[in-house]
Amino acid sequence: MTTNMPSLPALSRNFYEARREVLAAAGVTATPWYQLSAEERQVVDAETRIIIEALRRTQVEQEAREAVLARHRAHQGQEQPVPAAAAA
C-alpha cells in the first residue's frame, strides 16, 4: 500500500489549522497559521514530520502483519487432514 503525501508546507498548514479547530472546540484559542512566526512554523513542520514518520512506521507494520497472515493462511491451506484410521 503506497500513500502519496502532500507537500510538507501544505500538510503542516492543514495539520495546524485542524489542531487549532479542535482546540477552539475545547475552548482554547490558538494563533492562526498566517500569524505564526517563522520559528513557530518550524515547530509545526517538525511535528508534521513526526506524524509522517508515525504513518510510515504504521504502514510498514501493517504490511508485515498482512504478510505473516498471508503465510499463515497459505500454510493452513496446505495442511492435509489426517484420516481417522491413520491417527489411531
Helix and strand arrangement:
Layout: H1 8-25, H2 38-78, H3 84-87
Helix pairs in contact: 1-2
Which keywords apply here?
88 residues; single chain
| Beta-strand content estimate | under 5%
Tell me roughly what share of residues is in helical segments: over 70%
Oligomer: single chain
Mean pLDDT value: 88
Count of discrete domains: 1
Number of distinct beta strands: 0
Q: What distance separates the N and C termini?
A: 47 Å
How many alpha or pi helices?
3
The profile of the biggest β sheet is: none
- Rg over C-alpha atoms, rounded to the nearest angstrom: 24 Å
Secondary-structure element series: HHH
Shape: elongated
> Helix/strand/pairing class, anyone?
mainly alpha
Low-confidence stretches: none
Written account of the structure:
The protein is mostly helical. The protein has one domain. It has 3 helices and no strands. Helix 1 packs across helix 2. It is elongated and about 80 Å long.
Overview in brief:
This protein is mostly helical. 72% of the residues lie in helices and 0% in strands.
